[in-house]
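Hi Y.,

Following your request, here is the sequence exactly as I used it, all 137 residues.
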Amino acid sequence: MADTVEFELVAPEELLFSEPVELVVVPGAEGDFGVLPGHSPLISTLRTGVISVYENDAVNRRIFVSGGFAKVTPERCTVLADEAVALESANRGDVEERVNAARAVLDAAADDDKENAAAALAISEALLLALDTARQA
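Below is the corresponding structure, written out as C-alpha cells. Let me know if you'd prefer a different format.
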C-alpha cells in the first residue's frame, strides 16, 4: 500500500491543488472525515468548513470551502468545491470587506432575496472565523 493519497481540489473552472498527501481531513455534511491511502470508496456533500492537508504528520495547508462534493477512492480524494480559499494566503482586510459588503447586501435585500443574502453573509463570516482560527494555530 502506498504511503500517500492523491488529493485534488477543484473550484469552478480551475484545478487548485493536485498532490500526493499523507492525510486530508474534509468537512463532510455529516462531520469531518479523514482520508488515508486505502480509504473505502465514498461520496459526500461538504458543509462550509476547512480542509486540512497533512504532510510529515502536521497540517501544512488549510483551505476554506463553502460547500461542494467529495469523491474518495482507495487512491484518491477529489473535492469539487463551490468556493475555495487558501487560508495561508488570504488577506484579513479583504475578508472583512467581503463580510461588510455581504451585510450591506442583506440589509438592502428585498424579502424574496433575504435568504440568499443571509447565506452569503454566513459564508463570509465563516471564512473570517476560519482565517482567525488558522492564524492562531
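The chain has a mean pLDDT of 94.

Thanks again,
Q.
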